[in-house]
Amino acid sequence: MDACQHGYPGPGPQCPTGDQVLRHKFFVDWTDVAGKKGEEFDFVIVGSGVCGYATAKAILENDKTKKILMLERGPYFLPEHFQNLPEAFRDTLGLPGLTETFPWTLTEATAKGQNGTATWNHGMIPFFGGRSTLWSSWCPRPAWKELEGWPQAVLERLKVCKEDVVPPVDYSACPAKRPCNTELFNWAEDTLQVQKAGCVACTGGNNPVYEKLQATMRETLMPKWNAAVDYPEGEEKKAAIWHVYRAEPAPLASRGCHENGTDFLKWSAPGDLLQLIRDHTEKDNEENKNLKVVTEAVVTNIRHENGKATAVVTNKGNDRSGAPVVSNEVSLNPNAHVVLAMGTLPPTTLVRNSFPNLPKVGETFSAHFISSITAAIPVAALQKEGETFSDLEIGAMYVAGVAKNGEEDDFGKQFHIQLSGLYVAHPKRDSGTALRYMPDVVATASPEQLEWCKEHKCAVFVCAVLGELDIPGPGEAKGSSFRGNPADANPTTNSELEIFSNSKADKLTWDAMDQATYAMLEKLAGGKGKELHYWNVKENKFQDERYTFHVEGMVHESSTMPVGKDGVVNEDGSYALKGVDNVHVTGGSLWPRGGSWNPTMTMTALCKDMADHLVTAQQK
Hints:
This protein is an alpha/beta fold. Helix content is 23%, strand content 20%. It has 14 helices and 22 strands.
């Protein structure tokens, strides 16, 4: 599109789109990269979300001369995380078939609930930046035991804490000290701008929003690690919550001080990706970009020969009538690498179709099933003596546990609680501010809950409790899978997702995480369970009896192309498909087991590990 001519010698363009504007300054046209032109690139990254951005960033940090092509299936939609935008934008997200798509088919038994409570899995966000514009932003570091089943080589490169749990850290100071000084995790936290709840302030100290309620939650749930509380001998054990082994102030990707002085800014990929393009564009020649991005380019196949990818095939190349104009593929030079960074399930479909002889692809599937528990606790039970809460108080804690089977050393299946606390003295006045600061706006308090809490002088606690979907071992019950669907001729959607969430392990995990959540809430209420009120989802009101809502939709899908000796992907740092030297996998599909910790920060660290390995190999 030509630049505006100021009305001379005639009118300029009258109906530009947002994507056209970005293409003029940042993106490139398909014709600029199609066919043999693709051979200029050292890397082709498929996807522009967290893993796509992290991989490109790490490559260019290693070697700023590298040429990268990024193919994004969707157009530009949001400039940043929707929580940083006016509240009305919230209504545009999570719309099935529009802002969330499902490129697969559920089995009938799954969809009808015949295989358990979980009947579907959340889809993908088909726009520039991917799900990073709509995610909770919780970024915990997994501990050694939480990575059980992962290849030793990967753990050693990550330098995961070898203690049973994350070691004691004084979270009363800001910034909190990093446990286990590992370069990959540190890089990932810096890339995602992670900060602890309670350290939300640009100038140090506590932010008034994450202050008194946050301190109460931390001191109640972290007695043995809290520097401000001196517990007598034996009291720490009494304070323990069954099934729970660690708690910490929520690590949130939300630090914006380095950009504009904003104390709480949810991180997303679009802005940082545009800045990365800008930083690696020749100043006197804007056509010369080291990172070129093409939007609305759906990858449909990867051509290969003798164990090496030779071209990436897309839906591009035709005019509006369907007639071919240019090649629909990007040719690869002999030393180029293809990085799949488009989530977990879409790359699994792509790999299965492109490499049909590759075994085990999609044979396993895991994810996180969810319990939703919301409770109200009187403010009087939360305030310290002589203390008065501010008009708006927010707190967030990450609480990790395991479904034990009565044995002290049985680690079992993992779960964690994303605990968000909220006290709003004036809901109508402060709802917009509360929304912007909330740790998880998907699991947050409703206007009805806040009004009830105002009337009854309570704070509301929203618990999103995530449990690990079981992957049965050999000879055990049938497990979930993501296999091919012969009835679908579309190469981007011809997969079938079957979910089983009713195994003995799943039921044990669900029971354990619900028990732990109720125990945690009673602990916050000072052991006075009778003062707790629980939100009844069906009747839309608080009640005295416990109420748990088991959510049908799952999140954090994983484990379809696991890394490791018996998996689909190599563990040597290349994360390449076995038998295909130059096609590399990122994201949750690598997970040998689902775990329960939020995966994004670890995904980011593994992208850095892969980029370091590949750039070093190219330089030899």
